[in-house]
Amino acid sequence: MNLPFAQIDAFADRPFTGNPAAVMPLREWLADAVLQQIAEENNLSETAFLLPDASGAADFELRWFTPAVEVALCGHATLASGHFVLSAEPARDRVTFRTRRAGILEVRRDAAAGGYAMALPAYPPAPAEVPGLLAALGVGLGETLRHPNGYDLTVLESAEAVLALRPDFAALAAIGDTLNIVTAPGTDTDVISRVFAPAAGIDEDPVTGSAHSVLAPYWAKRLGRDTFSAFQASKRGGRLACGLAGDRVILGGKCATVIMGEFVL
């Protein structure tokens, strides 16, 4: 069996920046174990699988796998999937995806947003004590919040503190399979963040769309406005235009296709 695939850098204005995702269109769902093995072979933070949605609720069904697990929501691989479809169909302005746990997601062309605009669900976090989290991050003080869909948010005082983080990944993984987001006010941007997911096989994620499902409602409330700029300060780095529209987070960014080929099973 030969399966087409593309490797696409999402939230990237040029190759080798942003967050790489593999996008693989299918004619039918393969066994979950095979999908997981493909994602492990790709060895990227996410592999996105899509096939036409027979239900009519959306254009495609969409699922995402890290090298270790299937995840409930992945923003950058959704943006990459939108880029994959819209690049192949220039007359199409938008594409929708039906997901198993995150509802219907949309990617549309939007030059003002930096190429594409993507709508994700908003996940407002609430203050919560997370035993061991600050110690695992290697910080003494920080505000901790949580969203029950598997997101922990730690707010620090400065961008310098975020950049200086050297987490204990084994200790973070022991807390549970959560996405660990650390944020602070930015310097040349409104918001800075870093994101860690060692329990899912990803020590530090380069640019994480789903993390901004949590960051956008938090910072919109704190800043007193519904739009702001964000930078995820990984080694590759990525910039996002963020907005909050009711119960949806709107993220803007570009994509760059870096590999096109076939996966041979």
User: Mean pLDDT across all residues, rounded?
Assistant: 96
Query: Are there runs of 5+ residues with pLDDT below 50, and where?
Result: none
The fraction of residues assigned to DSSP E strands is 35-45%
Q: Which term fits the overall shape? A: globular
Number of strands: 18
Count every helix, treating DSSP H or I runs of 4 or more residues as helices.
6
What features would you describe in this structure?
The chain has 265 residues and is α+β, with helices and mostly antiparallel strands. The protein contains six helices and 18 strands. It has helices at 32-42, 75-88, 133-137, 159-163, 169-175, 211-223; strands spanning 2-10, 19-25, 46-52, 60-65, 70-71, 94-98, 104-110, 115-121, 126-127, 143-147, 151-155, 179-185, 191-197, 202-205, 227-232, 238-245, 248-253, 255-264. It has an 18-stranded mixed β-sheet that branches. The longest helix is centred in the first third of the chain and has 14 residues, at 75-88. The radius of gyration is 18 Å and the shape is globular. The model has no long low-confidence stretch (mean pLDDT 96).
